[in-house]
Amino acid sequence: MNLLPFGHRRWSRLVDEAADGALSERQRARLERHLARCGRCRAELEELRQVRAFLGSLEGPPLPRSFLLTPAMVERRGGEARPALAWRAATLAAQAFALAGAIAFGVLLTLQFTLERTPPAAPEEHRGAGGAAESVQPDGRGEAPAAGSPYHAPPVVASSPSPGQTPMAEPSDVAAAGQSPPVEGGYLGPAVTPDVRTTEGTPVPEASPGTPAAVHDHAVEEAPPPGASLAAPKATGERPFDPLPFAIAAGIVTAAATALTFILSRRT
Amino acid sequence: MSGIGDLTDEELVLLSKNGSLDAFNRLVERHQSAVYAVTYRLLGERTAAEDATQETFIAAFRALHGFRSGSVRAWLLRIAANQAKDQLRARRRRPALSLEAQTSAAERTRTDTVAEDPVTAAEQRARRSALQQALLELPFEQRAVVVLIDVQGYGYEEASRVLGEPVGTVKSRLFRARRRLRELLLAQAELFGLEERREGRGTV
User: Are residues A52 and B150, on separate chains, in Cβ contact within 8 Å?
Assistant: First the structure.
């Protein structure tokens, strides 16, 4: 409309008013004179009138039902808003926990790996290594159910060498959490003990390739912890702080919170 | 409850304020067609319009104490326009069915107008549907003005009260809306019988 010939804007307004049927006698006469020599304004006025007519011909839609209020409609609502708000708050809290847990898990695991790399390995600590590996097992059992699902195995194998990615594997753990636990000693036992022997002084990421293929196929969540646990004792000899249990705790929190988030999101 | 139907809107509001749902339901009976028609044109879809209409009356009943005086219909329509706006906002958050599909389906199920000639009937339906579609392309504020004034036939005063805007604003919005609609309908000139019969119109 900005491209109208110079001076046309004031005619546009007059045309609008005319289409509205709201012109004074003087305005009308002025517009008539203009319309006599301006086909464009004539067409515009005609079309605007037609638009009005079309709109006016739209009938009211038939009432689909009665909208009379019942006493229940008027009372119920106050109590209804609160649960909705509570659900949303709960979902938000669960999400926050999941996120915090995932971050803590990643950070602690990274810490675990870096701690283990810096000090030189002490050979005598291997007794302790077995103990630490054992302490992982309760956690391993908790997460092991994921092993039953064939979908989840590949991504985890990919993620196990790099601790930074492990939080990403969390949702799949949760999804699989409902499945029945597999035989426990099956892979945890063999997987851990040989590793303890073979990984003397070797960095953990290399421990993964050394483990039997069966472990890769099944271990979802425990793949990093056993690998990490081997290193833990080396650290405990010199350091008071062992991040591994915390990492495991964070992992469990993440898994639980993610599951909760999932359930809550289903509800709302 | 014999005389309750003869009471004026304002008298019914007064009774409703004292907790009479029966009195309020007389108001519902009186104005539900208008409220539904406006929300239907604003939303272009039946289910959403039904929801908005029901919500309007529930909200109005709760907000009765806020009603001072004036047109009950304008007050209800104001709530209705806000309900429709909320619906659209919610729909934007989670878009489900396309608007076009809903609109044409809604228009197809209409049986109120019967043209004896099936071709004319189909044409009318197509025109109504295209018109509703064009309405939905307008910004909400413009659509509201055009629905109240050109579709529903209310005056500037009432539209101004419904929308809470001065008459001048309502008027210029209406003019802008009509011009936009004209453009949209010209794009389907054959359907609306608007031929390009303008001499010397430079392509804009």
Answer: yes
Average pLDDT of every residue of chain A? 67
Q: Please tell me which residue of chain B has the smallest CA distance to A19.
A: B175
Judge if A50 and A113 occupy the same domain: no
> At what angle are helices A8-20 and A25-37 packed, to 10 degrees?
120
pLDDT digits (tens, 9 = 90+) for A91-124: 888 889 889 989 988 888 888 888 777 655 554 4
> Helices B72-93 and B156-163 sit at what angle, rounded to 10 degrees?
50
Mark whether A35 and A104 lie in a shared domain.
Answer: no
Q: Which residue has the tokens 């039946």?
A: B46
Range of the domain at B64: 7-96
pTM more than 0.80 = no
Which of B41, B32, B39 is CA-nearest to residue B129?
A: B41
Tokens at A17, concatenated: 């008013």
Query: Is the residue at B122 inside a domain?
Result: no
Nearest-neighbour CA in chain B from A87: distance (Å): 18
Range of the domain at A33: 8-57
Out of A26-30, A215-219, B101-105, which region has the weakest mean confidence (pLDDT)?
A215-219
Overall domain count for chain A:
2
How far apart (Å, rounded) are the C-alpha atoms in residues A119 and A109? 16
Q: What is the dihedral of CA B135, B136, B137, B141, to 10 degrees?
A: 80
DSSP A65: S
d(CA B36, CA A184): 65
Backbone angles phi, psi at B127, to 5 degrees: -70, -45
